[in-house]
Amino acid sequence: MALSEQQIQTLGRDSLQRAAAGDFAVAEAGFAQIVEARPNSGQALHLLGQLRLKLGRFAEAREPLERAAKFLPKDPAAQTNFAGCLIQLGEHEAALVALGRAAQLKPDDAAVAHHTGRSLEHRLLPSLAARAGLLAARGEWVGALSDLDTALVSQPNDPQLRLRRGELLLRQGDWWRGLADHEARLELPSETRYAPSLPRWQGEPLAGRLLLYPEQADIESVEALRDVLMLARLKDIDVAIQCAPQVAPHLALPTIARGDSLEGFAAAAPLRSLPHLLGWTLESVPPPIALKTARETGSSIGWFSDCTPPASLEVERDPAKIPACRLVVGDDAWPTHLAASLGIETLILLPHTASNAADWLWGPRLGTTSWYASAELLHGEDSERLAARLAGC
Fold first, then answer.
1. Which contacts of 195-202 are long-range, i.e. CB under 8 A and separated by 24 or more positions?
2. Model confidence at 190: pLDDT above 90
3. Residues of the domain holding 34
């Protein structure tokens, strides 16, 4: 039913009173009726858009605010509010155009300057993040962290920036500052990350069983198999581990396969979150995972690395024979971790290139490691050091 001019004025007055009282939803409905009756009323469109901004309905606010800016070309507030809506929608370049019009109408306006600064940040932040990446690749950690800290002042909750800062800190061995930022990875969408349909455990007491799981989508990947043996270090908690069949028979803890029923589980935690959740430090990680597999007497040398063993060395490559080995050499993969968990002398060969760095879990130093009492960390490319360690074997 068409509204008369008197009805529109009454509805407008009532809606303004509702808005002044903080009842934005009712006020928005009233101005929506007015705009429907008077679609070319710049003031009504402007007020409708502002109310939708108040309600957080930014996508719905865009159309009336854009039209208001066209019908009110000399009103700086109409241009500024339209720009504010565009910023919320991530349309920063269009927002700068609207702010340019507002600045011409009202130079030195604080609101215009504030919104212009917010819009320009989207140009600065990628540059800071990109430079941080270049500095980190050159080993200039201080400069890289400075750029990321600057970017995070403007966007403190940006998960990508927090994750990059966390990774840099962790690679330097700064778990105290880096672990919390590293949890930002769980806020980012990823086709390569898995999470079960359970509440995420935050370290609180549980009324049911806790599920630990590798977060890799491929549960049989090198990283997922390794993480199970390296990180499933929990005591005094009713827990089960979701893992692949390659490692499940070795574990003393209960295991389930991916796809099994989750009935009875109260919460779940990704294995790579345990250092953060349980307050581990690089110098004092808990003892290795409890195993069903027992060490056996033997004299063979296990070799589980992509690099070629010395021609004079007879090696064992079957993971089933690891318990009877006296020495194991291997890359950062599950057979090597099984050997180290059994207390077998183990040489772990870590990558050490700009494009393929060692996992941050190991820390920045080689040699002995708090992860395994019987293990030694070597650079995989350091053939001389490896040959020296193997001399006489």
1. 195/268, 195/270, 196/242, 196/262, 196/265, 196/268, 197/262, 198/262, 198/265, 198/266, 198/267, 198/268, 199/266, 199/267, 199/268, 200/267, 200/268, 200/269, 201/267, 201/268, 201/269, 201/277, 202/277
2. no
3. 5-107
